[in-house]
From TrEMBL:
Pfam families: APH. It comes from Isachenkonia alkalipeptolytica. Its EC number is 2.7.1.100. This is S-methyl-5-thioribose kinase. Residues 230-279 form the Aminoglycoside phosphotransferase domain. Keywords: ATP-binding, Kinase, Nucleotide-binding, Transferase.
Length: 428
């Protein structure tokens, strides 16, 4: 990349589409000087601005992604630490070293403009959208467990020099983004103390009973929040949902790491697992009844269940194998200690999965898996099933042993929801 830059980029300002194309031409040494460039804004998130710039009519298909952070949150305009983009850039570059080929390549980071220039994954698709369309990704469980295992264990005190780990931990202090998670995931779904929850009127009474008034649930959520806020055991992605992953049948890439910080390993694994239950609920409770191609729907659901089981099983296998080769401390190398550590991660991750499910149903950061349900009656039922699923995971997850326990918890929630409906019909 070019070292020189125009004076107009010596102070931060937010780029629009025209500005993104101009920046690419004037600052980045990616295209030839006479290339005819075009661009489009592709970001649809709540936080940052994302542009794709490409060469029009070139013999070789060349394109680049520009992701810029602003000092104001895109969705609400609230002030936000612009340093989050530097954290994301460093996280992505670290992924490329620890888990090669599982994240987009970073070409350049501009700290003044708070901008990352990175590889364009034009031949990949968003995992959330793919799962919503009942697409199968044979490589997904293999790749995502490699990503989580390597990027957490190798940045923990188990495998990293303690002084280097503490130095790295200071570089990834990310208070604004952590504050967002602490509120939206751990607190507001159970108290709505800021009045930002978005609940269907038809489910308000259900939410008040099952979430706002369940003190035992609040206790478990509080325990998990304390873990999130105080256990800086490894560098975690911090927002590892299916919308932050791009895929093909042969490839998986993780991006959107602006929430990265040193936190509990269980949060990344739990976040990913929890997000698999949104397409599970949609295809099981909505699309299976409406889809003419029932064989395709059934095949997808079988694969999705197998994937949930495989994610847990493969994570365990890879964690143990990596543990044996990279952990050297004599106390940590004990098999009993390794198994205790791993069991704790698994139990907490399954409870964290429940938090992610609940917050996506009642919070204001929705998922299209649920938002796309046109039939109100079916959506009401899906939301209730997922709320009960999340509660089961939060309250009982620490006793779960594998992915099959998660699936059984989901099935139990379907049964309990249908029993509630029957009892309501009997009283009417």
């Amino acid at each position: 990349m070019a070292e020189s830059r125009e004076n107009k980029y010596d102070q931060h300002f937010r780029l629009d589409l025209e500005g993104a194309v101009a920046y690419t031409r004037e600052v980045l040494d990616f295209f030839s000087k006479d290339a005819k460039l075009k661009g489009e804004e592709i970001g649809d998130g709540n936080i940052n601005y994302v542009f794709r710039v490409w060469e029009e009519g070139g013999e070789e298909k060349r394109s680049i992604i520009l992701k810029q952070g602003d000092s104001l949150l895109r969705s609400s305009g609230r002030p936000l630490d612009i340093r989050r983009t530097e954290i994301e850039a460093k996280a992505l570059m670290g992924y490329d070293k620890r888990s090669i080929g599982l994240s987009p390549r970073v070409y350049q980071f501009d700290p003044v403009m708070s901008l990352i220039a990175m590889e364009d994954l034009y031949d990949h698709e968003n995992l959330r959208k793919g799962l919503l369309a009942a697409k199968v990704y044979p490589q997904l469980s293999e790749d995502i467990t490699t990503f989580i295992a390597r990027n957490t264990l190798l940045t923990s005190d188990l495998a990293m020099d303690p002084k280097e780990k503490k130095k790295s931990q200071r570089e990834f202090v990310n208070p604004d983004m952590c504050d967002i998670t602490e509120d939206l995931v751990f607190t507001e779904p159970f108290t709505d103390y800021k009045g930002r929850n978005v609940v269907l009127p038809e489910n308000m009474e259900f939410v008040e009973r099952e979430l706002y008034k369940d003190r035992d649930l609040h206790l478990e959520a509080g325990k998990l929040k304390e873990i999130f806020m105080n256990r800086g055991e490894a560098l975690i992605h911090g927002d590892l949902h299916t919308g932050s992953i791009f895929v093909t049948e042969e490839s998986t890439r993780v991006l959107d790491a602006e929430f990265a910080f040193y936190g509990p390993i269980a949060y990344d694994l739990g976040n990913f697992l929890g997000n698999l239950f949104f397409p599970m609920a949609y295809h099981r409770l909505v699309n299976l009844e409406e889809e003419k191609n029932l064989t395709r729907e059934m095949d997808f659901l079988v694969w999705l269940e197998q994937t949930i089981v495989a994610v847990v099983d493969r994570f365990v296998h890879k964690w143990k194998r990596l543990y044996e080769s990279r952990v050297t401390d004599s106390l940590y190398k004990q098999e009993a200690y390794r198994d205790w550590y791993l069991d704790r991660i698994l139990g907490e991750s399954m409870a964290m999965a429940g938090l992610e499910i609940i917050r996506r149903i009642v919070g204001d950061a929705k998922v299209e898996d649920i938002e796309n349900i046109k039939d109100l009656e079916k959506r009401v039922k899906v939301e209730r099933v997922l709320i009960l699923t999340g509660k089961e995971f939060v309250k009982e997850g620490k006793s779960f042993k594998d992915g099959r326990d998660l699936i059984e918890g989901f099935e139990k929630a379907i049964y309990d929801t249908e029993k509630m409906e029957e009892n309501a019909d009997d009283t009417n």
